[in-house]
Amino acid sequence: MLIQHPGRCLWQMLAGSLVVASVGTIRTHAQANAVLYEGARVIVGDASPPLEKGAFLVQNGHIAAIGREGSVRVPLGAAHVDLAGKTVMPTMNNVHIHIGYEGYMSWSVANHTPENVLDHLEREAFFGVGTAMTMGDQPSSFAIRFQQDQLAGKFPPAARFFFSAGMAPPGGGPDVLLIQGTTPLHAVYEVSTADQAIAVVRKIAAGKIGEIKFWVDNRDNTRGSLRKMPPEVYIPLIQEAHKHGLIVHAHATNLQDQKGVVKAGVDVLVHTLTAEKVDDELLAILKQMRPYWVPVMGLGDRSELCDGDVSFIEQVLPDPVIADIRAGKTWLPSPPCSAPASPQFAQREENLKYNFPKYIAAGARIVLGTDAGVSAKYSYGFAEHHEIEMYVRLGLTTAEAIQVSTSRPIEVLRIHDTGTLAKGKRADFIVLSANPLEDIRNTRAIDRVYLYGVQVDRLALQAKFKRAVVDRDATQARFHKDYVPHPSLAPKPPD
Ligand SMILES: [Zn+2]
């Protein structure tokens, strides 16, 4: 219900950050009434130049008109929000996270509840992310139910939840940490043969799930000689998936596997080479196949994790977690910041610098993904801003990095109602107090976030995050050191 305060017009109520109505009230206002946002630099999110002094009209959660200030026809009685001096960009969309298991400083299957999934999506929204897709790590029944409930409006405003089914050889797939969540929940379909893979693809398609991720590598650095998914399995897997119109993502981290999966026609190549340099053969295959490419580089970026802008992530963390992080009690990065960087780190940096521009020049269609969800220090929403900063550091323009994080992901998610600021799209946007075209780190200067025309109540969310009870005694999964695999997860002998 609209509560009119005498002497105050509607736009003041909507625009003023001092007016904190309940989210439900704001939703009613914004969707039922027209609001003109005017005066900001508007970054559209596609290849077009920004509208300096732009204006856009939001009605019923959607953009009803957009143009230069003064050129947009405004219905009688519309509210006006003055955004002079601000920059507006679409909310970001992330095609690769791992949701539900992180609990600030704990990481456990015991954390996996609808409330925790929602908490993660709220943190994404807080940082200006409108949709996020979790990859191969959810039981399908749980994920479908959550998605339906969110669509039905049962949850408060948060990033929209998407998920992909996951497939791997028995005991293979997720890394040393994630597998401790996915195994007890039977979240990954395990397949050994082409026939099994085809049967699972049909099952996934019948369940109306649109995306599949498979893991190809054997985790030789962390989990020993697990079985890999061989081409004899993944080639028919991809072919069958395409018959059903599914999008296929492949986790592949070395040269040989990347060549194999891209040649086989995978739609989305996940990861980049960190221990090897790309060669002419892979570049030729990329040029021919032009897959989407989710490089996921930020997670290993020691410089940001050790020396980066901690205050940005600390906004959403309870005080005990901040204390733990400052004391180095987090498993990222490895080795910890107090220890010298490993020689592999310098090698990684050198390889990223060499490889990244070559993938792009060969036509790999880079798209935003972060792998967030494995550490409080590398978490939801924060990771997006860091990942796109890396794109710019490695050679993209700021405008390209914004497209990669806004409009490009919707091609992979196959939703067409968001990703750019254009007539007919949802009013999903971030108001920034600095211009990210000048410095990509200005995406962090978030003034407000709107999803579906509703201003996300960031202050209320922040207060909630700060109050979160942190169970530091909960199962703390850590990389390498403390991990003893359950017998069912022990490496299997090769066939
Ligand atoms: Zn991942």
Can you walk through the features of this model?
With 495 residues, the chain is α/β, with parallel strands linked by helices. It has two domains: 10-89 and 423-465, Urease, subunit C, domain 1, CATH 2.30.40.10; 92-422, Alpha-Beta Barrel (TIM Barrel). It contains 17 helices and 19 strands. The strands form three sheets. Strands 6, 9, 10, 11, 12, 13, 14, 15 and 16 form a nine-stranded parallel beta sheet that branches. Strands 1, 2, 3, 4, 5, 17, 18 and 19 form an eight-stranded mixed beta sheet that branches. Helix 14 crosses helix 15 (398-406). It is globular, with a radius of gyration of 23 Å. Bound molecules: zinc ion (ZN). Residues 96, 98, 135, 371 line the site of zinc ion. Zinc ion is lined by residues 96, 98, 135, 371.
Question: What descriptive keywords fit this protein?
Answer:
disordered N terminus, 19 strands, 8-stranded mixed sheet, 9-stranded parallel sheet, alpha/beta, single chain, TIM Barrel, Urease, subunit C, domain 1, 495 residues, 2 domains, binds zinc ion, disordered C terminus
Give a short summary of the structure.
This protein is of the alpha/beta class and 495 residues long.
Q: Could you please say which CATH topology of the largest domain applies here? A: TIM Barrel
Rg from C-alpha positions? 23 Å
Strand content: 15-25%
Structural class: alpha/beta
Number of strands: 19
Largest sheet: 9 strands, parallel
Number of domains: 2
